Amino acid sequence: MLTGRAVLRRSMRAQRGRILAAAALFTGYQAGEAAVPILIGVVIDRAVATGDAGALPVWLGLLAAAFAGLSLCWRFGMRVGTLAGVRADRELRLAVAARALDARGGGALLPGEAVSVATADARRTATVNFLVPHGIAAAVGITVAGAALLAFSVPLGLLILLGTPPLLLVVRLLSAPLERRGAAQQERAAQAAGVAADLVRGVRVVKGIGAEAAAMARYRRTSRESLDATLHTTRAEAGYSGAVIVVNGLFLALVALVGGRLAASGEITVGQLVSAVGLAQFLLAPLGTFGEITAALAAGRASAARIAGVLAAPAAVTGGDDEVTGPVSGELVLTGVRGPGLSGVDIRVAAGESVGVVVTDPAAATALLRYLNREADPESGHIGLDGVGFGSLDPAALRAAVLVSPHDADLFEGSVEENLSVRASPTADLARVAPATRVDQVAEALPAGLASAVTERGRSLSGGQRQRVALARALLADPPVLVLHDPTTAVDAVTEAGIAAGLRELRAGRTTVLLTSSPALLAEVDRVVFVDRGSVVATGTHARLMAQNPGYREAVLT
Amino acid sequence: MSTPPPGNAPLPIAAPERTRKLVWALLRPHRTQAVLAAVALLGAAGLSLLTAPLLGGVVDLAASRNTGAITGRVVLLALAALGQGGLAFGGLVLASRLGERVLAELREGFVDSVLALPLERIEEGGSGDLTSRVTEDVAAVSEAVRQAFPTFVQSALVIGLTLFGLLALDWRFAAAALVAVPIQVATARWYLRRSGPLYAAQRVAAAGEQQQLLDSFGGAATVRAFRLAEDHVAAVGRRVDTTNGLVVEVTRTQTRFFGRLNSAELLGLAAVLGMGFVLVDARLVTIGAASAAALYFANLFGPVNSVLFLLDTLQSATAGLARLVGVIDERPRAGAGTGAVPADGSVKAVGLRHAYVAGHEVLRGVDLDIPAGSTVALVGASGGGKSTLAKLIAGIHRPTAGSVHLGGVALADLDPVALREAVVLVTQEVHTFAGTLAEDLALAAPGADADAVRGALATVGALDWALALPDGLDTRVGAGGHELTVVQAQQVALARLVLADPALAILDEATAEAGSSGARVLETAAAEALRGRTGIVVAHRLSQAAAADLVLVLDRGQVVEQGHHDTLVAAGGRYARLWAAWSTDRA
């Protein structure tokens, strides 16, 4: 079982070279930052105080070197550290994407949640790679500054080194309730933003029913609630800023008091006093870094655990590695299939036959489709292709032989033509498929014909256009077995009748299953199977069932 | 097709002068608070500058071995810290409260204006633009007001006052410090030129990646059915490479920015130290003053970096603000109607013509006469102009020629409120509002009580499933809540119609998405919702036409046949052929 810890470890190990290089560079940067106040003190001691004109350029030169060092180290440390982050980020995102689209399915997250795991959680996990070098460097910086302070004076050094951590602890204690309240406030603010975006997205509906005033009243209420929550936290936030200033200032005064007395008594030089004050300020940054890193590491671990949860989710269908061997003749046999709304369904579709399946319970129809597409396996029973059980076949290989196209099939970003040709078989011909599925009419109505862009999973097309493109895409794939679910619900009656005839002609001699209750389509198939209350209750031609089976009549008629 | 191409008349962006005026108008009622905040923050910045000279004093006293006087300076240091903390607290409280109030008024003004815009205007401008304004631009302005602006003001005050402090020590220290300024100005300009487009590209890339992931994950079943997983993972990889490439590019730009600022710091610091050497040597200042000057300058590094770095946050906030103000200014003046109220739900249209794009007419002269209380079905192939006719009668688009009268009053003479009370349009766009189901329905009739809401749901056959939701009518639905099926969402839309209770209802709903059994449910619901009012129905299923009082067959923007279903079937024309196709296999 994959754990969050393992995900995090793997992600860091792959980038360990970059992490170490960034740590070295950030250490150089910290050393430079610590050297600047020390060198200011030295310049004052060795040049300004003594009036030694020869010493000034030497020490200023060293100051310049320190600046150059810290600047370059930071610049390249940031770059290497960023790379260590984004490279890991890429691997994690692709791993999540590959898992979500895996042929065996499973890991039933809502699309929105999966997107958030692939983006936000991947980023938080990968950020650890960027932060660890900072942590290493901060530790080195503290050691260097501490050593310098202790070299000046043991009591002063101890005061600063032992005084700073409690100082930071006080600051953290001050900010802890703020973080909690901040989170609550952010939630309120997000809610207000959410309501606004939601109203704007639904503005056509709001205006269609004349609800402008009611909608505005609702938004104003949310916005005022968010404002009230924010006003409560501003006091705490400002209080925190003020307190940090006071605590830091008082500590600085204490350092000045002790250091000043030591300098006055000649135990340290004046320059060392200046350096000590500077270092006391410098130390706040690396010590503060530790606090931030602790929080980010916790977030990274939690995110890594969510990623692990997605990656390790069990598959929806198990077993089956066999390839589909030889040419598929296309005999489809369902025996005793049970599942939601299905209590033992037996259907035999002969190779090359076209069969309509009418299922009264929509849940049962959905379940049947999922089994045929191997999105799921039936609770019990058997489905076989040319005598081979679905369960023993590799799901991807099976789908090459049995293609299932649902009525709300998704299109993808690209042109209409790209969507059509996505799995087009060399044996299929757009010139025949386009008129048969009435996709030629779709192309005529679109501004750029087949080259028109499809966006938002096909939502840029009307329902009828989308449905016809999806149908043509399935027919162009020309699979040995084609399963279509309600392919014409969004088109008008004349178009539907034309498509029904076109389907028959295009699929002549190829196994075709039409899961629908549309009389126009059912009239064009060889045979109809009527599934009611979970099992097959009648079989025959559409005309015969219409004439003899009242239940069937009711199911397919308005 | 039947919708106008979006973005052919983009929504405006306000001119800087107009933006300033609006912000000023929002600030004016709070001006006392603004002045007090400024005074407090200035005081805090002033006190912060005492630290360096006081420390310099301690250095001087230590150099002269005057141990006793050190304590006095240290007490002053402590008092300065206390005063600075107190003033900063007061100033920040005042400033952030002011900012939050102005922000709230701004976002409310924006939403109010969007809701008041004519739909036609929204469609011309593209609703995606509005969504991005209400999300991204509001967020950019909020972030600037909450985070960037306080830091920016505090840092700017510290910088300004530090220059005064250096001047007070000796004017030559200030002159030496200014050596850094040309580099800083050049660096800031260099950065602003690059950062804006880079951040914009980053937002576009992030949105693209998000969309790709939603596409692929949302369509996972289709991806699997067509064995496209590899292609889609590769497409995600390309998107990730673009976003990550931009992250690297942003890092490079930022590190170069700070690298240049480092050289400015070095130059300035060396100049101040060198000046200290010269002035101490000439006995013009004390060592303490020279130390203080160096510390002053070193303390500027942080504030200068923040001011310059925040410039681009403020720049994008300013751009966002201009886009918000642009929409606020677009708010139409209140109703231009004559105050006339339609007598009933009858509809009369004469010579209606409409073109979304000049020269490409979608409607080519349509006449209608619909008595109050009757139901009319619009029939015909897609692209025939059915939806456009529906929108013209609903007053959402103005016809290019011709007129529509509603209950004896011309649409053009109705003010927006009266229009919406008389006509309700339910379109194919299913939007369930985020919030509870009861709140969603209350939008249509804010005063409706629980019984009326239940009654409306019962009318459209939705009460059973609504009560069966996890929390009944108080279940959260819409974005982030319980997901309704397409049929349920469309039933909710019809229940809103029942609650709004207009004289004329126009239905152009999406039975298409519902599958055949869902379509039947919706057909019944629509028939119930139309009871007792005039109804115009864009009929996707001919059973709807068969039940209507009048059928209009539209083809290429014209009414080619009209009459009762039986009459038209008997006449053996276009409608009869449609009906034959529809009913053959149903017999």
From TrEMBL, chain A:
<dbReference type="Pfam" id="PF00664">
    <property type="entry name" value="ABC_membrane"/>
</dbReference>
<dbReference type="GO" id="GO:0005886">
    <property type="term" value="C:plasma membrane"/>
</dbReference>
<dbReference type="InterPro" id="IPR017871">
    <property type="entry name" value="ABC_transporter-like_CS"/>
</dbReference>
<dbReference type="GO" id="GO:0015421">
    <property type="term" value="F:ABC-type oligopeptide transporter activity"/>
</dbReference>
<feature type="transmembrane region" description="Helical">
    <location>
        <begin position="238"/>
        <end position="259"/>
    </location>
</feature>
<feature type="transmembrane region" description="Helical">
    <location>
        <begin position="58"/>
        <end position="77"/>
    </location>
</feature>
<dbReference type="InterPro" id="IPR011527">
    <property type="entry name" value="ABC1_TM_dom"/>
</dbReference>
<dbReference type="InterPro" id="IPR036640">
    <property type="entry name" value="ABC1_TM_sf"/>
</dbReference>
<keyword id="KW-0812">Transmembrane</keyword>
<dbReference type="GO" id="GO:0016887">
    <property type="term" value="F:ATP hydrolysis activity"/>
</dbReference>
<dbReference type="InterPro" id="IPR027417">
    <property type="entry name" value="P-loop_NTPase"/>
</dbReference>
<feature type="domain" description="ABC transmembrane type-1">
    <location>
        <begin position="20"/>
        <end position="299"/>
    </location>
</feature>
<feature type="transmembrane region" description="Helical">
    <location>
        <begin position="158"/>
        <end position="178"/>
    </location>
</feature>
<dbReference type="InterPro" id="IPR003439">
    <property type="entry name" value="ABC_transporter-like_ATP-bd"/>
</dbReference>
<feature type="domain" description="ABC transporter">
    <location>
        <begin position="327"/>
        <end position="558"/>
    </location>
</feature>
<dbReference type="Pfam" id="PF00005">
    <property type="entry name" value="ABC_tran"/>
</dbReference>
<dbReference type="InterPro" id="IPR039421">
    <property type="entry name" value="Type_1_exporter"/>
</dbReference>
<dbReference type="GO" id="GO:0005524">
    <property type="term" value="F:ATP binding"/>
</dbReference>
<feature type="transmembrane region" description="Helical">
    <location>
        <begin position="130"/>
        <end position="152"/>
    </location>
</feature>
<keyword id="KW-0472">Membrane</keyword>
<protein>
    <submittedName>
        <fullName>Bifunctional ABC transporter</fullName>
    </submittedName>
</protein>
<keyword id="KW-1133">Transmembrane helix</keyword>
TrEMBL record, chain B:
<dbReference type="GO" id="GO:0016887">
    <property type="term" value="F:ATP hydrolysis activity"/>
</dbReference>
<dbReference type="InterPro" id="IPR027417">
    <property type="entry name" value="P-loop_NTPase"/>
</dbReference>
<feature type="transmembrane region" description="Helical">
    <location>
        <begin position="75"/>
        <end position="95"/>
    </location>
</feature>
<dbReference type="Pfam" id="PF00664">
    <property type="entry name" value="ABC_membrane"/>
</dbReference>
<dbReference type="InterPro" id="IPR039421">
    <property type="entry name" value="Type_1_exporter"/>
</dbReference>
<keyword id="KW-1003">Cell membrane</keyword>
<feature type="transmembrane region" description="Helical">
    <location>
        <begin position="148"/>
        <end position="167"/>
    </location>
</feature>
<keyword id="KW-0813">Transport</keyword>
<dbReference type="InterPro" id="IPR011527">
    <property type="entry name" value="ABC1_TM_dom"/>
</dbReference>
<dbReference type="GO" id="GO:0005524">
    <property type="term" value="F:ATP binding"/>
</dbReference>
<keyword id="KW-0067">ATP-binding</keyword>
<dbReference type="Pfam" id="PF00005">
    <property type="entry name" value="ABC_tran"/>
</dbReference>
<feature type="transmembrane region" description="Helical">
    <location>
        <begin position="34"/>
        <end position="55"/>
    </location>
</feature>
<dbReference type="InterPro" id="IPR036640">
    <property type="entry name" value="ABC1_TM_sf"/>
</dbReference>
<feature type="domain" description="ABC transmembrane type-1">
    <location>
        <begin position="35"/>
        <end position="316"/>
    </location>
</feature>
<keyword id="KW-0812">Transmembrane</keyword>
<dbReference type="GO" id="GO:0005886">
    <property type="term" value="C:plasma membrane"/>
</dbReference>
<feature type="transmembrane region" description="Helical">
    <location>
        <begin position="266"/>
        <end position="287"/>
    </location>
</feature>
<dbReference type="InterPro" id="IPR003593">
    <property type="entry name" value="AAA+_ATPase"/>
</dbReference>
<keyword id="KW-1133">Transmembrane helix</keyword>
<keyword id="KW-0997">Cell inner membrane</keyword>
<keyword id="KW-0547">Nucleotide-binding</keyword>
